[in-house]
Amino acid sequence: LASGPRQSNSVFYEIRTYDIKPSKMKEFVEMVNKYFHLRTAHSELVGFWSAELGAMNKVVHVWKYENFAQRTAVRHALANDNDWQGKFISAALPLMEKQHNEVAYLVPWCQLGKPPKEGGVYEWVTFQMKPGGPALWGEAFRAAINAHINTGYTKLIGVFHTEYGLLNTVHVIWWNESPDHRAAGRHSAHEDARVVAAVRDSVRFLESQKNMLLIPLQCSPLK
């Protein structure tokens, strides 16, 4: 029930969330689509999404690093990349209102997944758990996740537990064919005794939760 796979490898994920000025969202997305290849030349992008429901004028992107030394080297290279700094950063920063980042590990019982096809939507659910880490709530949380997987209406992409940022935070990414498909699945899950029992056990350790419906950008590997 360790908080992440660092007991066997050093891979981690940086989750970056940017709030964009409402009048500049279209411009920001256009810039990302045009210039983000300059950024992905330096390190691996897992996914890049814009919020459709649950938040507005917000983008979320996730980066994979083999270790902290790699991230340090990448950040140094980006600071000295004249194309990246001149074509994207200098123009994009005035469009932003706020930036936030976290470092997280995949939980040890989860591998990063992919959707069965392109064209769906992603649900990003954030759970704030009670202090104590997965040693306290990991088993119950895993059971609740598995209960939703077993209904078959949704596809699990990843479960991440924070290492830097607000601790005892778990981010879960799901994929669905459409918002309507997700809604129908949720209604069915709420009537499934297995899901109800697992969730009831897990919420004993829950302090809060929130979710967003996300649309992948053109540059996102997860589409």
Can you describe this structure?
It contains 7 helices and 8 strands, in the order βααββααββαββααβ. It has helices spanning 25-35, 37-40, 68-79, 82-92, 134-151, 179-190, 193-202; strands at residues 12-20, 44-53, 58-65, 96-106, 121-129, 155-164, 169-176, 206-216. It has an 8-stranded antiparallel beta barrel with strand order 1-3-2-8-5-7-6-4. It starts with 11 loop residues before the first strand and ends in a 7-residue tail after the last strand. The longest helix has 18 residues, at 134-151. Helix 1 runs antiparallel to helix 4 (82-92) and helix 5 (134-151) packs antiparallel against helix 7.
Chart the SSEs and their pairings.
Layout: E1 12-20, H1 25-35, H2 37-40, E2 44-53, E3 58-65, H3 68-79, H4 82-92, E4 96-106, E5 121-129, H5 134-151, E6 155-164, E7 169-176, H6 179-190, H7 193-202, E8 206-216
Antiparallel strand pairs: 1-3, 1-4, 2-3, 2-8, 4-6, 5-7, 5-8, 6-7
Helix pairs in contact: 1-4, 5-7
Elements, N to C (H/E): EHHEEHHEEHEEHHE
Our measurement of the CA-to-CA distance between the termini, rounded to an integer number of angstroms, reads 31 Å
β-sheet strand percentage = 25-35%
Rg result: 18 Å
Number of helices: 7
Using the alpha-carbon principal axes, give the shape: globular
| Total beta strand runs | 8
Low-confidence stretches: 1-7
Mean pLDDT: 93
Biggest β-sheet strands, sense, barrel: 8 strands, antiparallel, barrel
Query: What is the fold named in CATH at topology level of the largest domain?
Result: Alpha-Beta Plaits
Give the helix/strand class: alpha+beta
Give the strand order, joined by hyphens, for the main sheet: 1-3-2-8-5-7-6-4
**What number of structural domains do the residues give?**
2
- The CATH first-level class of the largest domain comes to Alpha Beta
Q: So, CATH architecture of the largest domain?
A: 2-Layer Sandwich
